[in-house]
Design brief:
Layout lengths: L12 E2 L3 E2 L9 E2 L3 E6 L5 H16 L2 E6 L4 H10 L8 E5 L5 H6 L8 E6 H10 L4 H5 L2 H15 L4 E5 L1 H7 L5 H14 L3 E7 L12 H5 L2 E10 L2 E11 L9 E6 L2 E5 L8
Parallel strand pairs: 2-13, 4-9, 4-10, 5-7, 5-8, 6-7, 8-9
Antiparallel strand pairs: 1-3, 10-11, 11-12, 12-13
The structure holds adenosine-5'-triphosphate and magnesium ion (MG).
């Protein structure tokens, strides 16, 4: 959010499309926020982020860029099909070859539908390796690759949302000498680009922080924490809003369910947590 508002009604909010959660955060995440989506393996971080971009494309004709560093676009889309998303209802554009970016970007507004741009950096990395270019040399430029992708899309189309899946994988590719300074500039870049961003952070359930360097916890505008909790002989999925700037929220731990094509957050006091 870069503009000063005089009335709280003027704060535009983006739904998380998690039924029960938006109602507990004044309707959603303020537009332009950079939000960490943190949690352990399998806690549905990618699914929650994908779900927001998919629904914003479907209902509001928006354009979202989902940058996947390790999971291939095929694996991501198969997962979405298994979750019964109707992928024909949105325009899906895959970027898996950097030399064809311009052709791919042209497809963004080809159809009169919202668009989900999937940038499959894992495949691009494998291609680079196949061409015998030293990955280390290419790695130095990964941040620029992502920034340029955002800039290029914004030049010829609109871009509303950005997902980085994951921040943790990104750190393996780009070693930071001074994380506090470099991360500050990355967060500012996303805010200046007027994107509402979701940065996926892989953290264990026991972790006291929500990001690798810890500074991201403070630099981000919001943190959604997804967790897997043991309850009797079951693993329960949980979600909580750890922080959300400019928002009065309920910080309870909700249980998270995905049923009938919809995410639901339920109060801790309700089933299945008695
Ligand atoms: N149709 C479905 N309904 C409910 N849950 C599903 C369905 N299909 C897959 N899942 C669950 O989704 C989980 C994986 O979700 P997702 O890939 O979003 O998690 P993640 O936190 O991003 O995982 P990772 O850390 O491996 O990237 C799986 O553990 C699987 O059990
Ligand atoms: Mg994931």
């Amino acid at each position: 959010m870069s503009e000063l508002v005089s009335d709280k009604k003027d704060i535009q909010r983006i739904k998380t499309y998690i039924n029960g959660l938006d109602e507990n955060m004044e309707g959603g995440i303020p537009k332009g926020h950079v939000v960490l989506v943190s949690g352990p393996a399998g806690s549905m971080k990618s699914s929650v982020a994908f779900n927001i971009l998919y629904n914003e494309a479907l209902h509001n004709n928006k354009v979202g860029l989902y940058v996947s560093l390790e999971q291939s676009y095929i694996s991501l889309l198969n997962h979405a099909v298994n979750m019964e998303y109707d992928l024909d209802k949105v325009n899906i554009v895959v970027i898996e070859d950097l030399s064809k970016i311009n052709q791919d970007i042209k497809k963004i507004k080809e159809e009169n539908k919202g668009t989900l741009v999937l940038a499959d950096i894992g495949t691009i990395r494998k291609e680079i390796k196949g061409k015998n270019i030293e990955e280390g040399a290419a790695n130095k430029g990964w941040l620029n690759v992502i920034k340029n992708l955002i800039k290029k899309i914004k030049l010829s189309a609109e871009l509303d949302y950005f997902v980085l899946d994951s921040l943790s994988a990104f750190y393996v590719l780009s070693k930071f000498e001074n994380p506090r300074i470099e991360l500050f500039h990355i967060f500012e870049f996303l805010r200046d680009a007027e994107l509402t961003s979701y940065l996926i952070s892989e953290m264990t359930s026991e972790s006291e922080k929500y990001s690798e360097y810890y500074v991201e916890d403070f630099l981000s505008d919001g943190i959604l924490f997804l967790n897997l909790a043991k309850f009797r002989r079951q693993i329960i999925r949980e979600i909580s809003i750890v922080k959300m700037r400019t928002t009065k929220c309920n910080n309870d731990i909700f249980s998270l369910e995905y049923n009938n094509k919809e995410f639901k957050a339920k109060f801790g006091g309700q089933n299945p947590l008695l």
